[in-house]
Amino acid sequence: MSTLTGPSRVPSSAPDTRTVWVRYLRPRPRRSSLLDIVTISVAAVLVLAAVFGPLIAPDIDRSSITEALQAPSFAHLFGTDQQGRDIFWRVVVGARYTLTSAVIIVVGYALLGVLIATLATTGPRWTNEMLTRFIDLGIAFPSLVFALGVAAALGPSLPTACIAMVVTGWPMTARLLQGIMKETLALPFVEAATVLGASPLRLMAHHLLPNSLPPLWIKWTGDIGNTALVLGALSFIGAGAQPPLPEWGAMVAASQEVAMTAWWTILFPGLAIVVTTTTFGLLGDMLHARMDPSRSRTRRRHGE
Amino acid sequence: MSELLEVRDLCISVVANDGARTLLVDTVSFSIDAGERVALVGESGSGKSLTARALLGLDRQMELDGSIRFKGTELVGMPERELRKIRGSGIGMVFQDPLSALNPLMTIGDQVTAPLRAAGVSRHAAWERARRTLEELGVGDAESRMHAYPHQFSGGMRQRVVIAIALISEPELLVADEPTTALDVRVQAQVLRLLAEIADARGLAVLFITHDVGVVGELARRVEVMYAGTTVERGSVEAFFRSPAHPYTRGLLSAVPRLDDDSRLLSMAGAPPAPASRPSGCVFSPRCPYATERCRDDRPALHLTAARAEVACHYSPVEAEVPA
Amino acid sequence: MITVSHLHKRFRGHGRTPVIALDDVSLTVGRGDAVGLVGESGSGKSTLLRCLMRLERPDEGSIEYAGQDVARLHGRGLVAYRRGVQMVFQDPMGSLNPMMSVGSIVAEGLRIHNRRRGSRARTARVGELLELVGLNPDHADRHPAAFSGGQRQRIAIARALAVEPDVLVCDEPVSALDVSVQAQILNLLQDMRSTLGLSLLFIAHDLAVVRYLCEDIYVLKQGRVVEHASREDLFRAPAHEYTRQLLAALPSHAGLRPVNQYALPPQQKLES
C-alpha cells in the first residue's frame, strides 16, 4: 500500500491549517470593492473614537452660555449646543457610550441565546418543548414597550436600557440557532461523533456549535448597528441615557426645541447614529460574503 | 457515412478572476454517426461531463476552442438563441439525478409538454404527444399519471419522465449524463434496456457518459475513454472489455470486482492530476508503471492498434489478443 | 460477536399507513467474519444499521453484543459498546467535521475512550493510524476540505480504527467513489481485516463488491431477509427470486474479464 503524497483536488488550494476562528475571517480571493474599504475605514474611525475619544477630548461638560448655539466653525467643527458645549467632542465621546453599550448588549443576548438554544437542543424532549414555547413568547414580546416598562420600574438610564435590550434580544438568537442546530444535528459527522461515543457536551462544543455559529456571527455584527439605533431611540424618548451623558439619542432629544434654527445640534448626533448603524450593517454583509462557503453539499462522484 | 456529430480538437478552459486560464479538456475529438451509440467513460476530473455539456452549450462561463459540428452546423461560438433551437429538437439531454432534474412544483404533464409548448405546439397536441411518449417509456396509465407531481413517483419512474422530456421534441442525438447512477440496481438495468429499445426504435444516436465500467456494455457499441481531459483510448465495446490497450483502461478494468474472479483487485497508485498540474507528456505517465522518459516528455497521439482500436500510448498494445 | 434476533421496526409514514422498515430480521456476525448485507433502497438496511449503532430503537427484537442486549445499554456499558463496534459512513464529504483538523478527527475516539494519555501519545497514535490507511501523517493538521473523497474515506476508516473495535460496520463506504478509488478502499478494508482480525459488516447495493469482501451474505428486501447464504452458494445457486433478479440486473460485462491484465512485468512491455 503506497503512501499517498498529498491532496489532489480540482482546483487545488493551499491546505488550511489555521484555527477555526481565524478561518472565519480568512480573506477570500475577491477584490475588495470601494465600499468594503470605506466601510472598514469608517468602522475603524468609530472604534478609535470610542477608545481614544474620551482620553483626548477637552472637558465636554463645561458649559459656556456665551458660546451657546454657534454654527459650525473651525473652533467648533460641529457647532455648539444650547449650553455652549462643543458638539464635535460630545459626538466623539458619545461613540464610547453607544458602541460599548451596543457591543455589551449584543454579547449579552448572544450568550444568553446560545445557552438557551443549547439547552433546548441537547436536553430531553420536554425541555425542548418548553424552551421552544418560551422562545416563541420572547419573540412575540414587543421589545420597545418592555424597555419602557423596565425604565419605569428601575428608573431610566443607559444601564437599564441595556438590560432591557438584552432581555428582549436573546429570543431571536435562540430561535435562529435552534433552527440551524437542528439541521446540523442531521449531518453525518454529528452522527459519526455520536457513534464514537461522544457525550452531549462534546457534541455541542466540538461539532454542533462550531458548525452552527457562522450565520450568527453575521447577524450579530449587523445587530451592533441596529442596537445603536434602538439605544438612540430609547434615549430619545427618555427611557435610556439621560443628559448630560453625551449619548447620541439623548443629544437629539435635547436639541428638539432649537432644531429648526440650530440644525447642527440635531444633524451631527443623528448622522452619527445613522453612520454607525449602516457601517455595522455593511460589515455584516462583508462578513457574509467572505464566509460564504463555496463547497456545496451536492452528491458527486469523488476521485482520489 | 453521414456524421451526425463531429467534435474536432475541442478544448474547454475556465478563466479565473485574475485571468489565469486552466485547460480542463484538452484537444478531444470524436464523432457519432446517425443511430450510433457511443459511451464516454472516465472518472472524476476526466472532463467527460464537461465535454457532454459543451455539446449543448450548457456551461456558458467556460471557454470553448475547436469545433463541434452537429449535422454540419458549427456549435462553438453559436449564440444562445440559436443553440436553444438545437436543444431538445436536435440534441436532447438526460441528466443524472432524476429528483433534482424535475421541478417539484410542476406536474409531470406540464414538464414533459414544456418543450413543445415553448415551440408553439397547442396544449392538446402537446399533451397527447407527451402521453404517447410516456407510454412508450413504460409509464403505465400515463393519462392520469401526468397530473401527478414528481415526489409521488419512484426513482425509476422519475428517470423515465426525465427521458421523456429529453425525447419529446424528437432529437436525433441523445446525450445521457450518468442516467442510472442514482438508481437501484434493478431499476438501472430496466432503464438501460429501455434506452436501448428506444434508441433502436427511433434510430436515435446516443452519447452515454458514465464512470461505471460495467454498465458500458449495456448500451453502447463504441467506447471513448477519457482521462485527465484527454482521450486515451477508443474502440468497440468488445475490444474495450477483451483487450484494453491503454494502461489506464487496463487498470480501470482490473479495479472492478468480478463475479468469476477472486483475485485481489488491482488499484492504481496515485490519483488523476489536477488540471493545473497536468504533465506535458503523457497525462498518465506519473501513474503508469511502464512509463519511460519518452512518455514523460512526449505526449502520444492516438494511433490504430491491431484490434482496430485507437490508443494514446507509445508502447501499447504490446501483446497480441489472446482468445478467451 | 453480534447477534440480531427478530428485529422489528415501524415508522409512521406520510399518510396514516405505517411504513414497515424491518420485519423479523435476524443476522449474526461472528468473530473475524466478513458479513455482507445487500439491499436496494427501502430494503431496511439503513434502519438496521441505525438500530445496530444505537441511533434508533427497534420496536421488537434484540441485538446482542458480548452477551448483552444493546438496546438496554447505557452509561459505561454503552460507551464500551461504542468502542467495540465502529462505523464507516457512506458520504465521505459529510462524515467528517469540516471545522476540525484531520488529526483531531482521528484522535477524537482516543480522547473519548481514553485510549492514549497525553497529547504526544495521541499524536503518535494518529500518525500510526494515518500511515496504516495510506495517508501521510504530516497532513494531520489539514482540514477535510483539502482531501479528495477517497482520502476522506481513509480518514473515516482511521477514525473508526482508532478505538480498536472488534466490529467494523460499513455503510456503503465505496458507493460515492470512483471505480479505481473503490478498489483501493476495498483492498484497504480487506487488509485491515486480515492484519487486525476485525469483523466486518458490509452494507452495499452492489453484489459484485459484496462478493469480493464477504463470505456470508444476507439479502434484504423491504425489511425482510429473503436470503442468507455463503458467498459460493449465493452466486452459484441463488435460492430466492429476488436474488436472482439482482444477479440478472448486473451488467453483462461484469463477468467478462479482460484478457490482458494490468500487472504484467514491465520488461515484457516496452518492445515496440
List the helices and strands and how they pair.
The complex is a heterotrimer of chains A (304), B (324) and C (272).
Chain A: H1 20-24, H2 34-56, H3 87-122, H4 125-140, H5 143-154, H6 158-185, H7 188-196, H8 200-212, H9 214-236, H10 248-254, H11 264-291
Helix pairs in contact in A: 2-3, 2-11, 3-4, 3-6, 3-9, 3-11, 4-6, 5-6, 6-8, 6-9, 7-8, 9-10, 9-11, 10-11
Chain B: E1 3-15, E2 21-33, E3 37-41, H1 48-55, E4 62-70, E5 73-74, H2 80-89, E6 91-94, H3 98-101, H4 108-118, H5 123-136, H6 142-145, H7 155-167, E7 173-177, H8 185-202, E8 205-210, H9 216-219, E9 222-227, E10 230-236, H10 237-242, H11 247-254, H12 293-297, E11 303-304, E12 310-311
Parallel strand pairs in B: 3-8, 3-9, 6-7, 7-8
Antiparallel strand pairs in B: 1-2, 1-4, 4-5, 9-10, 10-12, 11-12
Helix pairs in contact in B: 4-5, 4-7, 7-8
Chain C: E1 2-12, E2 18-29, E3 34-39, H1 45-52, E4 60-65, E5 68-69, H2 76-84, E6 85-88, H3 102-113, H4 119-132, H5 149-162, E7 167-171, H6 179-196, E8 199-204, H7 207-213, E9 216-221, E10 224-230, H8 231-236, H9 241-249
Parallel strand pairs in C: 3-8, 3-9, 6-7, 7-8
Antiparallel strand pairs in C: 1-2, 1-4, 4-5, 9-10
Helix pairs in contact in C: 3-4, 3-5, 4-5
Q: What's the mean pLDDT score of chain C?
A: 85
- Largest protein-protein interface: B-C, 54 and 48 residues
Lateral strand order in the biggest sheet of chain B: 6-7-8-3-9-10-12-11
**Strand arrangement, major sheet of chain C:** 6-7-8-3-9-10
Q: Which oligomeric state applies?
A: heterotrimer
Give the count of helical stretches of chain C: 9
- Which sequence of SSEs, written as H and E, runs from N to C of chain C? EEEHEEHEHHHEHEHEEHH
Poorly predicted runs of chain B: 318-324
Q: How would you describe the shape of chain B?
A: globular
Mean pLDDT of chain B: 86
Strand segment tally of chain C: 10
List keywords for this structure.
heterotrimer, A: 304 residues, mainly alpha, 0% strand, disordered N terminus, disordered C terminus, B: 324 residues, alpha/beta, globular
3D structure, described in words:
By secondary structure, chain A is an all-alpha fold. Chain A contains eleven helices and no strands. Chain A has helices at 20-24, 34-56, 87-122, 125-140, 143-154, 158-185, 188-196, 200-212, 214-236, 248-254, 264-291. The two termini of chain A are 14 Å apart. The model of chain A is unreliable at 1-29 and 293-304 (pLDDT under 50). Chain B is of the alpha/beta class and 324 residues long. In chain B, a hairpin with a 2-residue loop joins strand 9 and strand 10. Helices cover 36% and strands 24% of the residues of chain C. A six-stranded mixed sheet of chain C has the order 6-7-8-3-9-10, with helices on both faces. In chain C, strand 1 (2-12) and strand 2 form a beta hairpin. Residues 262-272 of chain C have low confidence and may be disordered. At the B-C interface, helix 8, helix 9, helix 10 and helix 11 of B face helix 6, helix 7 and helix 9 of C.
